[in-house]
Amino acid sequence: MGVQTNKQKIEEYRAKAKELVSKMTLEEKVSQMLHKAPAIPRLGIPAYNWWNESLHGVARSGVATMFPQAIGMAAAFDTDMMEEVGDAIATEARAKFNMQQKYGDADIYKGLTFWAPNVNIFRDPRWGRGHETYGEDPYLTGELGKRFVDGLQGHDDNYLKVAACAKHFAVHSGPEDIRHSFNAIASKQDMAETYLPAFEKLVCDAKVETVMGAYNRTNGEPCNGSKTLLGDILRTKWGFEGHVVSDCWAIKDFHEGHLVTKNEEESVALAVNNGCDINCGNIFAHLVDAVKDGMVEEKTIDQAVERLFVTRYKLGIMGDADDNPYANIPYTAVDTKEMQELNLKTAEKCVVLLKNDNNALPLNLDGVKTIGVIGPNANNRRALKGNYEGTASRYVTVLEGIQDYVGDKARVLYSEGCALFRDRVEFLAEPNDRISEVKGICDESDVVIAVMGLDSGLEGEEGDQGNAYASGDKPGLELPGLQEEVLKVICESGKKVIVVILSGSALALGYAQEHADAVLEGWYPGSLGGKAIANIIFGEVNPQGKLPLTFYKSTDSLPEFTDYSMKNRTYRYLSEEPLYPFGYGLSYTNFDYSDTTVTNDGDNVIVDFKVSNTGDKWGVATPQVYIKKVAKGTPNASLKGFTKVSLGAGESKDVKMVLEKKAFALSDEDGNMVTSAGEYKIYVGDNQPDSRTKALTGKDIPGIDITL
Q: In degrees rounded to 5, what are phi and psi of residue 158?
């Protein structure tokens, strides 16, 4: 049955919800439309807080397994993994909820309605919240997001394991510091081709229970009160039957930031009349007056509250739910050995090998007596976490992972190297106060591992506590502070240099690409990320990650941050070569593709091919299928299929991928997705078929012609 409960059961829940709401006063109904919904003892309704987070693990409520940040998981290009992680998170969520309910704890972050995943498109590398997403490609985002929702919501016919949420509807991707007043202008074509597909996938295919609006306006309408988005598209076109939640305190932006209403009463009326059912915040309390003043009909309130109680019935936390299979998951299901193993395996899949000159990696400890580990992220726990994070019972930084792996086989020397973004580590010291230590360690080391990048104190959400850039967005793509200066000293030492980047977004790594022997992108790899990265550095694991976004050389060629046109943004519309392309990632072995055939059976296009591991190590290939319409003004070759293939040394496997005709569709100027007759090219390979990938890999991916 998938993640949606069966129709008969849903009708039963709706009838129960309708009957329950009919017994409420107006004030009681409105009280249930706030994220902190109070108990109504006379009707047997317990208190419930709707606000919970599970972006990459159960967040903000004590110990839980902390998986890699979303952008890192996207780099695995692995839909099965996404569902497995989602299911694990839901298991821990239920275990914690069951325990909390036992002790009467209904606080914030203690419910079963999780406001994840974030399926906004990471259209600009400066956006601080990009690491919450699955990258820049709408197809990849939709496929990964769908399976994550499947994992979270489960496959029981009668009950949701937890309720997932597709956010932020729609187009939100910065700038953070003006999101409460900003009007994102996007053409109908860009909406259809880029900004909406992932949401449609989650609503129509995954049956996601909740959709959250964005802070900004989209084409003049505030998203949490948009007739176009919430009414015409979400409810009417896509047939969404779940509930809509506002982003937190976003409704007051209608009159304070967007200036489309005059006061609280007008703002709440605009939101509810256009389909927003629940307010993260407290401004919906004004709905009582809005109804009494004739601005909102009480039947509109009834409809919203009924939707909310249907969700609670689906979760089995209202009414008779003795057959709920999730109600007895014990607290001991949290943070188990199996969960930690899944966490480590997930982190290992996420790391992307960007450069590996002369097989510098994996690192052979034979003959290596001393390893230098230098950099502000080498022992930085915050760089493991990302944002919307939980609390792990154990953290393993990159330094600790290396130390644990090496043991007594070699000496490990460590220096912070420099502060993450300031010009000195110690406040009273002179600038660059660790540089002599850096030089000393380089002198003594046989190989140096430089661990650089960012953490969630440098990129995140507007208003995040401790965010060094205040808005949350990055001012540019350079390594902050003295990091590149320190990296130059390391590279000029003449020793073998391995660069490990921990970040949630693309950085300008031109110097590292030119001068280091190897470069790894580790993202924010979760609580066991340091162990995963050590396993890759020393060859226990073969890297398989692929970039879910473009690494640009600089921001010089990018449009203004506030420009929401897709022209010259992301790999699908880019007009010049990037530093590292979307879909790119190396392995310790080599994969070849052969015997590719393309067949049009009238309904679908079937792509058959053979992938072979021609190297001497086991590895996991990531076959990617791209489609290009051969016509002027169309996007570059775009990802329309991908899978994972495990291959031993010398092994080959035949792969079949089926492309529906809608995979060939492009939008017209009116936002209609049309599969038009004409010539197309299909590309099959381990990367994107662009000139930069060819330069980096030495491999050309020929296109196969097909006419529809």
A: -110, -25
Q: E strands, 324-437, where? A: 352-356, 370-374, 411-415
Quick check: is 247 catalytic?
yes
Would residue 193 show up in a list of annotated catalytic residues for this protein? Answer: no
Give mean pLDDT, residues 684-697. 97
Domain-located, residue 327: no
DSSP 443: H
Tell me: pLDDT of 178 over 50: yes
Task: Please report whether residue 660 resides in a domain.
Answer: yes
> Left, alpha or beta for 581 (phi > 0: left; psi -120 to 50: alpha)?
beta
Task: Write the single-letter amino acid at 661.
Answer: K
pLDDT at 471: 76
Query: What are 486's two structure tokens?
Result: 């320190």
Give CA–CA dist 441/152, Å, rounded. 46
The β-bridge partners of 656 are 608
Place of tokens 């979303």: 70
Has this prediction a pTM greater than 0.90? yes
φ, ψ at 189 (rounded to 5°):
-65, -45
Gap between the Cα atoms of 71 and 59, Å rounded: 17
Contact 385, 69 (CB under 8 A): yes
What value does the mean pLDDT take over residues 463-490? 86
Same domain flag for 399 and 511: yes
pLDDT of residue 358: 96
Interatomic CA distance for residues 540 and 533, integer angstroms: 10
Instruction: Provide the mean pLDDT of the chain.
Output: 96
Q: How many residues does the chain have?
A: 708
Pairing of strands 447-453, 370-374: parallel
Q: Each residue of 120-145: pLDDT tens digit?
A: 999 999 999 999 999 999 999 999 99
Residue after which a domain boundary falls, among 274, 295, 320: 320
What the block records as the tokens of 630 is: 């051969």
> How many domains in the chain?
3
- For residue 571, the surrounding DSSP H or E stretch is helix 570-573
406, part of any domain: yes
pLDDT at 280 over 90: yes
Residue 2 confidence (pLDDT): 40
Q: Using omega within 30 degrees of 0 as the cis cutoff, is the peptide bond preceding 38 cis? A: no
Share of the chain above pLDDT 90, in %: 96
Nearest Cα residue to 17 out of 327, 267, 305: 305
pLDDT per position as a tens digit, 68-120: 999 999 999 999 999 999 999 999 999 999 999 999 999 999 999 999 999 99
Cα–Cα distance, 433 to 423 (Å, whole number): 8
Q: Give the residue from 223, 101, 109, 105 showing the smallest Cα distance to 173.
A: 223
Check if the beta carbon of residue 301 is closer than 8 Å to that of residue 26.
yes
Which member of 200, 459, 473, 484 is catalytic?
459
* Segments forming the whole domain that contains residue 222: 7-320
| CA–CA dist 434, 374 (Å, integer) | 10
Q: Which of 5-14, 467-476, 498-507 comes out lowest in average pLDDT?
A: 467-476
Same domain, 378 and 307: no
Calpha distance 449→440 (Å, rounded): 14
Reported as a pLDDT band with limits 50, 70 and 90, residue 469 is: low
Catalytic residue among 143, 247, 264, 455: 247
Three-class secondary structure assignment of 508-564: CCHHHHHHCCEEEECCCCCCCHHHHHHHHHCCCCCCCCCCCCCECCCCCCCCCCCCC
